[in-house]
Design goal:
six-stranded mixed β-sheet; alpha/beta; binds 1-deoxynojirimycin; single chain; five-stranded parallel β-sheet
Amino acid sequence: MKNRILPLIAGCAIMASCTTPQESPMDAYITDLMSHMTIQEKIGQLNQQVAGDIMTGSEQDTEITDLLKRGEIGSVLNVKGVERVKAIQKIAVEESRLGIPLIVGMDVIHGYETVFPIPLGLAATWDIDGIEESARIAAKEASANGVAWTFSPMVDICVDPRWGRQAEGAGEDPYLGSKVAEAMVKGYQGENYENDYNIMACIKHFALYGAAEAGRDYNTVDMSRLRMYNQYFDPYKAAVEAGAGSVMTSFNIVDGLPATSNKWLVTDVLRKQWGFEGFVVTDYASIDEMEKHGISDKQHNAALALKAGTDMDMVSRSFVETLEKSLKEGLVTTSDIDLACRRVLEAKYKLGLFNDPYKYCNIDKAQNSTYLPEYRETARKLTQESFVLLKNDNNILPLKKQGTIALIGPMAESKGDIVGTWCVASDPTKYKSVREGLETALAGKAKVLTAQGCNFVDDEYVQKATRSVVPFIDKEKGKREAIEIARKSDVIICAMGEDAWMSGEGASRADIEMPAPQRELLAELKKLNKPMVLLNFAGRATAIKWESENIPAIMNVWFGSECADALADVLFGDAVPQGKLTISMPQCVGQVPLYYNHLNTGRPLAEGTERYANFTSNYIDVRNDALYPFGYGLSYTTFEYSDITLSANTMTVDGTIKAKVTVKNTGDYDGVEIVQLYIRDPQASVSRPVKELKDFKRVDLKKGEQKDVEFTITPDKLKFYNYDLEYVLEPGAFDLMIGANSSDKALKKTTFEVK
Ligand code: NOJ
């Protein structure tokens, strides 16, 4: 059968006579196309199906060929390999009645084959240009491999590290989260898909998925609107304003309604308040899951979702199976279906798929555009930047390239785990293990002895269930081997923590401490009294109090295809650590949710109080502060901050003032400092956080060098949503803090007044 679409382009979209004065060429083209579509074909555009490669739920691969021919599929997801994408596209384009191209989506979350650190690690670079570049590279590789649409960025704020998907977001802060969200959208989409490698971004998961109760994935969310607007919504909104073409609804309920059918969220907030013009897709089988949330049956739930403003049904087949019936029964209208169909077709039009359905299916391009040396170089640099040095007693790090090094732990040799969670297109055969990274860098100058030493966790079932490829070994034998090589070595590096799948979807943990077998081995190794470094592989904020009290050097590591080389760079001082935490690392799990930008309570603990204080907001058994606070991270060098100078002590409601500090590199290495600005509105019409990040700068400082770092305080940095959800600036006094991290002791302070 012949493709029917291309003649339509020639016949309408590029002929000015076809468009009415109000209609853009896109509108005219789609109006014309839709006039040829049956209701089944329109509903087909709203249906997304798996093609069997990668699945995250129980839905089975269906034989999609017949459905494609009947025009019952508008999109497929997670198909791997350009040949396979092309074959599927060919059926849609050449064998369906109208030949409407598919939009092919994939979870390209932190890279395609070149894998960047997990998003939580990328955020820890605070390198917004670098993050944008990582998304651009991901788009270049993905687009060359058939992918037109990525289900990224995930912008869910998360303050509870028990939730495994903390790994996939930028952390706990709405300001930083918004900057990262914007950068990712720009990196994927460019300005309006101007390059042939630009792909469509998808903001997810709308909304509040990261606030699942008790950090248990898919769990209930219940939150005041004030908190939604002031703490959780900004990154979604920023990504909308950056032009993201699509949004994915979340699995959870919001205000008692599944997000997928929550009209207030999907239509009132997203489209009306924020002006979102793209299309909305559900998360995996979310319409089906509405029944389990206790809402209604499949038919009614599909109608509710469509009515709420959701346009595409990811894999549950609820739309294709029920909407026609619902139309007859008056549950939905033709214009509801038309509107959703139009939005999906617009996305295809904007991506250029009607001009060339095979735009993303050039097989030669795929071969020459994937895992290129220049992409890997960028990934290596960003991975170096992402590591967060938590402690470094007696400057153990950097290590000298000499002697014998014991490399111990379940992450020491695992290539399967090195990229971290959820990178469906990665190819572990191409990546180096930590051991290989160290050996390459050492080039024979020092000897590396390696032992797995222990399992990730004590329970073999769990280790396998988290999909780790690391063998489950005999505990005593593992320990013996580790101690034996440690004895022969000058320094011990422990590559431990979480495997790739101990974080990510469905990977919640109730206990976020170092799992028992790893902790026990660390304790044994410590007895040898040798210099020890812990590389804490993490997909979340873990609670490593024991380690912080017992291991002299600890660095948080966030995976990635170039992780091994980047680790060697930093461990041996060819690069200097720069990363800073974007989540608060608790002392123990009982403190969570723990986040720096909390409200004050009526009985706050007085600043500087070291011990438990009765009838005060604190715990008997643990201090309130984080073990390592938001914004924290060390370097091999040190930085000193001057006091803050303000350009004026007062500002008008529509004016600006400038705040300046001088930062000096006082140590022995060139380095990069991430200078952070926090603001507090101490008296407002609603209770406001004790501080909020409002700006930051990454500053390069050579050894001995000092620079003035200046921030402009604009009205926007002082505004918030009041009780009536109006975005306001309330005149009065404000506290302004600048420093190295969010803890009070790291900040210089001053005040100013808005009149
Ligand atoms: C479920 C996840 O929640 C979502 O993030 C992902 O994009 C889809 N599965 C598709 O794989």
